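Quick question: what would this complex look like in 3D?
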Amino acid sequence: MIFASDNWAGAHPAIAQALADHAGGHAHAYGDSDLDHAVRRRFCEIFDKDVAVFFVSTGTAANALSLASVSRPGGVAFCHAEAHLVEDEAGATEYLTGGTRLACVGGPLGRIDPQALEAAIRRYPPEFLHAGRPVAVSVTQASEIGTVYAPDELDAIAAVAKEHGLAVHMDGARFTNALVSLDLSPAEMTWKRGVDLLSFGGTKNGCWCAEAVVLFDPAQAGEFAFLHKRAAQLLSKSRFVAAQFQAYFDDDLWLDNARHANAMAARLAECVKRSGSARLAWEPQANEVFAVMAGATAKQLTDAGVAFYDWNAPEGFQGIMAMDERICRFVTGFATTAEEIDRFSGLIA
Amino acid sequence: MIFASDNWAGAHPAIAQALADHAGGHAHAYGDSDLDHAVRRRFCEIFDKDVAVFFVSTGTAANALSLASVSRPGGVAFCHAEAHLVEDEAGATEYLTGGTRLACVGGPLGRIDPQALEAAIRRYPPEFLHAGRPVAVSVTQASEIGTVYAPDELDAIAAVAKEHGLAVHMDGARFTNALVSLDLSPAEMTWKRGVDLLSFGGTKNGCWCAEAVVLFDPAQAGEFAFLHKRAAQLLSKSRFVAAQFQAYFDDDLWLDNARHANAMAARLAECVKRSGSARLAWEPQANEVFAVMAGATAKQLTDAGVAFYDWNAPEGFQGIMAMDERICRFVTGFATTAEEIDRFSGLIA
Amino acid sequence: MIFASDNWAGAHPAIAQALADHAGGHAHAYGDSDLDHAVRRRFCEIFDKDVAVFFVSTGTAANALSLASVSRPGGVAFCHAEAHLVEDEAGATEYLTGGTRLACVGGPLGRIDPQALEAAIRRYPPEFLHAGRPVAVSVTQASEIGTVYAPDELDAIAAVAKEHGLAVHMDGARFTNALVSLDLSPAEMTWKRGVDLLSFGGTKNGCWCAEAVVLFDPAQAGEFAFLHKRAAQLLSKSRFVAAQFQAYFDDDLWLDNARHANAMAARLAECVKRSGSARLAWEPQANEVFAVMAGATAKQLTDAGVAFYDWNAPEGFQGIMAMDERICRFVTGFATTAEEIDRFSGLIA
Amino acid sequence: MIFASDNWAGAHPAIAQALADHAGGHAHAYGDSDLDHAVRRRFCEIFDKDVAVFFVSTGTAANALSLASVSRPGGVAFCHAEAHLVEDEAGATEYLTGGTRLACVGGPLGRIDPQALEAAIRRYPPEFLHAGRPVAVSVTQASEIGTVYAPDELDAIAAVAKEHGLAVHMDGARFTNALVSLDLSPAEMTWKRGVDLLSFGGTKNGCWCAEAVVLFDPAQAGEFAFLHKRAAQLLSKSRFVAAQFQAYFDDDLWLDNARHANAMAARLAECVKRSGSARLAWEPQANEVFAVMAGATAKQLTDAGVAFYDWNAPEGFQGIMAMDERICRFVTGFATTAEEIDRFSGLIA
């Protein structure tokens, strides 16, 4: 019963097979093989737009380089206070951008509040050089706490961003989980909503190591290429990332994997709802379930072999919990089985 | 007849199999799985020493983070003028170290001359703050032009470095090719020669994507972990790099692959020597052959389907070539076949 | 009636005279003149401790280099949400430290709340690499809004910092105004309270351009020298900064200037208190007065030739103001005259 | 007999007077005073062009920020191997640009050889991402060894630069010494020669602390303002730098000071020529004289109270000196007197 993280899983058999299939032969290195080119074209089809795509080895690299590409001296990027950028990347963005500040914005349930964003941007009035200058807003879709922005919520954020001339970045480490949750097309969830750059993650959804930066303005590719290379992210045998993405997109594997993961999360959430010893912290919308339970209950789960993590209570949430209660995060993935959920259900019933 | 680069090959079947074998199941992420730990212990055995090991996704990352870990404000790192660090990494070291200078040192055949190193260091006298301060020397083993440092040559460089308090870094993108060429143990070619940090490359020698930084002082691991994470190089499913290295070391695959590649290079060099239309630029010592030939000859090879690259003439070499001659680089690898060499031989005979 | 900022004033006549007195002759450059050495010794006397002192050209440089000297990869420095570091330095600290994050901490009246600091630090648990790591806390004394930390308040912050292994930095752009307000010795307000590094400002208190970093552990000087030089802050004719500080300390000019400025602020605050059209936002403790007034009143003042700035309402303050009210900042300095205050008083009476 | 450096002098009486004259009163801070504006207009008149001007506190800052403003990721800036940028700034440019490489180019007598520049640039072929990309060339006028580029020499370098799309930066720490040596107008020595950015130095020529970046394309000012502020170079009481420059330009003080310094150097060179114990290393063209002499002779001078520095022999020069000979640098300035030179003459006669 492994619900610790979706990156504890291995690689989906189809991904593993794709790697094996492409093991032989020779091909151009550094992203210039036929396979690299074909997969980049596939991204254009999937996003229904001419896009530029750069493969990177981690989601952190995707986020930091995305923001680097739109930042400038004195730059400030806005993101949710609980964003991965802020909480889990050890300052990679600040470092790889040469000092761009991440300014935290609040908002309920892991989503930036557009009015709070507006207020945060206004702390940096145009022409007041001393404060620095807003350059970007980053939204996480699905969010760090398993919620998703609805299309109109993305529109509202993009509207604020565009009014102030900011680029909109989407951290899509769990992009596909949000996509199937909302039942939107990739275009409808990104550039049609005003998103300029996307960290597109495959690793948590069945790949071994497949992350990409998608630039919705492909004219930026020439400059991005230097950021990418200079940050040590241009893989020599890049075609193995391409191979993963090829299999990922074939036969809708990516969508199926995400649907499965989300369904497992919904099933797990039902167990929690029915349980006498735990309750949902909030409704899951993707592949993460957050449950409030007593410390003793959590310990029993751990002792019974359930892997999960404690989670910091979001802003404003603490008052809702009893002293001895904790928030526990359960993440499902392509490899989660209904049988695991059912065993878990037995433990908390 | 692909001699363009050893990173044009795919993955050795045993590496591909290892990836497939570990595709299933769940394991701790971020380098904390049993497999990660086991493979790091394997590195200790192989180097006959307690070492700290960090997996990274590119050789460029290995080099830049190695130097970052020993640099300080105003730092200057010395390397050969033709080093990969200087020629092929788009300023990654300067960027990821926050501005460490790469000071180029000359020396014949791609190897730093110890006296030239001494002179270069002396341009930065201790206590003359204005110049900056030497912090490290980086040697490339095997070198960019397929030569290797003999043990006493490494000793001589390390002696100069240590006299001035500099760390010694080895760029081992082709570590194993040098190792089998010299018939030394890993310890004898590294820390017993004064090497403090090693970029250990597996990718060019049969892995898909397996590079590591090896710290011969494991007490540095705590600090390095932050450099590693912050540079977006901490892979979530790190165990897949570990799996590659496990297969790489098993049954001496790494050594066999390198011996094969070197043997193929020797065979190719013989073809060049016997040829009437080309000559060796210098004797190969690892898996790269550099041949001087007329432009017309090179074109014939290209037209016949031989893939290779032109190479800039090293310092002092240009006078030895006729106006219409070029230096061509031919790289062999684990996947090069004797049959390919023989076909090549027929073309230049 | 210039209350816009204490850096709108020129140089005190004694400072101007000192510059003129040292204009002639020749002396060692780059901080190595007899005068530089003498003034650094004077700092040791004043702080009653062996300290290292580096002259810099701006307070921003002093702050950023102080934090650079104690930061490390993945570093996080805590400061008040309204600190100059955050609000007015265009990301200099993030940039000059190579990406150190400034994590904002709340607290009433411009002062960090120790409990909020403790909570903020705990968001970065030791050994949780992913979050980065706390390295320093920076307090502003006097604060950006004219309040001062009492000794026990500094003790409380230092206690939290030390418990977590953090360095304590003091931004003393208005150091002397706080010092005379509290009637403490320099030692009592700094290293005896746990302060490790100080940005010591002279510019706002009568110098033309005289700022310094004071390191209470002089063993750090060797490393700091490289930070200082590399950041383009080692002035060639450094002795002119030294000359300013010499005059600044002679005959207690610094203390007298600050006492005068604070007295003028107190006088101005009395005018506000007595006024029917404005009220104090909070009690001034140094040389800044913040008054709440209607926009129309503020406009009348401006029209009458009073120079001052609007100020963002601190967190939690907005509810206390009427819709049409604003917070206006009035800063006094060594050159402010009682006559100016009295004219001002007439305007708001 | 102080010939150690032109920054060992103090401030010219007219500069000191200007500082005193502006000591009183209040004015807008941060470069926004009437005086700041007036002096920037004066720069436009002097350069016969609409230019943007930013005051900075050191020549190192001027150089590093100039290059930062034209660099991009993977950027490489070319300069002479003996440039101040390389030899005396402790990596400030590499640091403040986030990793721009300084690629050294040779050339006799401290001047870049255009053909060597062309060859150096060609090591970074366009589209070969891996190498990085040329962004700028920096010339030092007058050079570090007291020579000057003739107009056609500047043209030749600019032609190479422009052909490859590089910006041309001039390090003018001793700008005026070169200007009067060549008897050109400021326009003729800069933008009419293709110079895009200038580090304009006043400190070595009679100011206390007055350096500026001059952008010949004033449209760059908006972006430069952020670089300037973020690098901690926006002085609050900026008008005191302006005051120095105002006096510097008034009544041609700058030109007179430089003419005097150059004349003193010529006089000193004559002494050396006539001397039996020393000889000129090369003909001086500005305010620095380099003499070759035996170590014993140099020691006698030192013992007699002459202050000067030893200098590293430029590339290719060493063969011309005897084993016990050294190159000694003698710098003259606005404060050097004929009487000093004559006393010096007596010592080496």
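Answer marked as accepted. The domain at 13-252 of chain C is CATH 3.40.640.10 (Aspartate Aminotransferase; domain 2).
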